[in-house]
Design a protein that fits this description.
- With 295 residues, the protein is of the alpha/beta class.
- It has one domain: NAD(P)-binding Rossmann-like Domain (Rossmann fold, 3-Layer(aba) Sandwich), CATH 3.40.50.
- Helices cover 40% and strands 19% of the residues.
- It has twelve helices and 14 strands.
- It has an eight-stranded mixed β-sheet, with helices on both faces. Strands 7-14 form a two-stranded parallel ribbon. The chain has a two-stranded parallel sheet with strand order 9-11.
- Helix 1 (11-22) links the parallel strand 1 and strand 2.
- Helix 1 (11-22) packs across helix 7, helix 3 (76-98) packs parallel to helix 4 (134-144) and helix 8 packs across helix 12 (287-294).
- The longest helix is centred in the first third of the chain and has 23 residues, at 76-98.
- The radius of gyration is 19 Å and the shape is globular.
- It starts with a strand and ends with a helix.
Length: 295
């Protein structure tokens, strides 16, 4: 199958492209600069342009592009960048797909469990409403921007991804060096739930979505066993054979991270109901499984 991917240089996108190519799929990587390789095509979300030749003949499109949520302190300017990179990019791509004479069968649009906001101890699945706050509002707009593709009859799926356990990037890319140095510890009270997924299962779930016509709308990409930050910390210490004795107070996180600390300290107990109902089998269901897989 010919598959287009945006965000192919990110943690998930890079792993997905590698997995697809290993199985013989043709991948077209959309980039925001002049194409420098035969497998690249140009798009410019800010200008609202997409090279239609890159989309021609694609059976699926996986849209993963977006500014990193935890890459910078949340100034008003960077919050606009987080929102615009997702909403404008999705609207641009969805509009281009809707205009094709031969559109793809499926658009897998990246989203996030930030949609649900802070759920405390309450488990939620895809039927739960959006939460309140900056990230939930971004996710709502992000998903709504794909409406042109859905209206054109393209099966549109929102992959609401949790915290990806990987040593190369994301939140865990920062945690592993700290724990290896013996400087790891719980964040705040440690009672907040972290809904994680291994990088292997994330990629496998994206491919499962592509191959499963019954899946449409929101699909949570999280392991079936969410754990608290305190339990995650203990698991990291066990797997890495390091102490985890240095808790980070909530006040210190707020000084360092600003507004983003509210999401780090927030609790999201998210369950992958639709993935499980569709027959997906997790290779790394537990937190120790995911940590060992990352190593």
């Amino acid at each position: 199958m010919r598959i287009a991917v945006t965000g192919s240089t990110g943690l998930i996108g890079k792993a997905l492209v590698q997995s697809l190519r290993a199985d013989g799929h043709e991948v077209v990587r959309f980039v925001r600069r002049a194409p420098a390789a035969a497998d690249e095509a140009r798009w410019d979300p800010a200008e609202g342009t997409v090279d239609p030749a890159g989309l021609a003949g694609c059976g699926a499109v996986v849209h993963l592009a977006g500014a990193g949520v935890g890459e910078h302190r949340w100034t008003e300017a960077y919050k606009r960048e987080i929102r615009d990179s997702r909403v404008l990019g999705t609207a641009t791509l969805a509009g281009a797909l809707a205009a094709l004479d031969g559109p793809p069968a499926v658009l897998v649009c990246g989203s996030a469990i930030g949609y649900y906001g802070d759920t405390g101890d309450r488990p939620v699945d895809e039927d739960a409403p959006a939460g309140r706050g900056f990230l939930p509002s971004v996710c709502v707009e992000w998903e709504a921007a794909a409406q042109p593709a859905a209206a054109a009859g393209i099966r549109t799926v929102f992959a609401r991804t949790g915290l990806v356990v990987a040593k190369e990037g994301g939140a865990w890319g920062r945690l592993f060096p700290l724990f290896r140095a013996g400087a790891g510890g719980r964040l705040g009270s440690g009672r907040q739930f972290w809904s994680h997924i291994s990088l292997h299962d994330e990629v496998a779930a994206l491919r499962h979505i592509i191959d499963t016509p019954a899946l449409t709308g929101p699909v949570n990409l999280t392991a079936p066993e969410p754990r608290t930050n305190r339990e995650v910390t203990a698991a990291m210490a066990r797997v890495l054979h390091r102490p985890a004795l240095l808790p980070v107070p909530a006040a210190a996180l707020r000084i360092v991270l600003g507004e983003f600390s509210d999401d780090v300290l927030g609790s999201q107990r998210v369950l992958p109901a639709r993935l499980l109902d569709s027959g997906f089998v997790f290779r790394d269901p537990g937190i120790e499984d995911a940590i060992r897989a990352a190593l």
